[in-house]
Amino acid sequence: MRRSRFLGGFLLPSGLFHASLIKSVQYGTITINNTETSQTATITSVNTNQTALLFNGVTNTSGGVANGEVHLVLTNSTTVTATRGTSAILSTVSFCVVEYQAQVVRRIQRGTIAITAGNTSNTATITGVNTSKSVLSWLGQSTDVGDMTDGSAQLMLTNSTTVTATRHASTNNMTVGYQVIEWR
């Protein structure tokens, strides 16, 4: 991928020229009321293989931090889903969806890692990536109880085919969302 000084854009490996590497950007929020554990937002259709989902934070009305822990999933080309483990409070999560031009992203892989009570880590197997051209991002977490006993999980791209989620304690069930973007 080369940037042209004369045309003010990018020449992609396919030979296509684009003024920007980004095709579209959409921001949104999802509100989960105090009786729900999941809710969705509708977005303008994107190519999920060329689109990154960014977790921009969550606000809660009350009830402790863990009651409002949320993880995100780009469910399909028009839907972002926010999920949490408990339904005690009103939570609003913010997100951003960035769709890249074709030939910018080689592959995007998303998923969740479940860490069950009694364990401090678990892994997800992904299709092999070039780790020197890949970025791992956290898409939030949720637990099945309303406290922060187990703290927050951290993610690591352990090797080219493994994402590992680790936490410091093992009291509760936890689900952690992740995304791996492999650039061309």
Task: Please render the helix and strand layout as text.
Elements: E1 2-4, E2 9-11, E3 17-18, E4 22-32, E5 38-42, E6 51-60, E7 71-76, E8 79-83, E9 91-100, E10 105-115, E11 121-125, E12 134-143, E13 154-159, E14 162-166, E15 174-183
What shape does the CA trace take?
Answer: flat
Largest sheet: 3 strands, antiparallel
Low-confidence stretches: none
Number of strand elements: 15
Number of H/I helices: 0
Order of helices and strands: EEEEEEEEEEEEEEE
Give the end-to-end Cα distance, rounded to a whole number of Å: 8 Å
Kindly provide the radius of gyration, computed on alpha-carbon positions and rounded to a whole number of angstroms.
Answer: 18 Å
- Share of residues in strands: over 45%
What is the spatial order of strands in the main beta sheet? 1-2-3
- By secondary-structure content and strand pairing, the structural class works out as mainly beta
**How much helix is in the residues?**
under 10%
Supply the number of structural domains: 1
Overall pLDDT level: 87
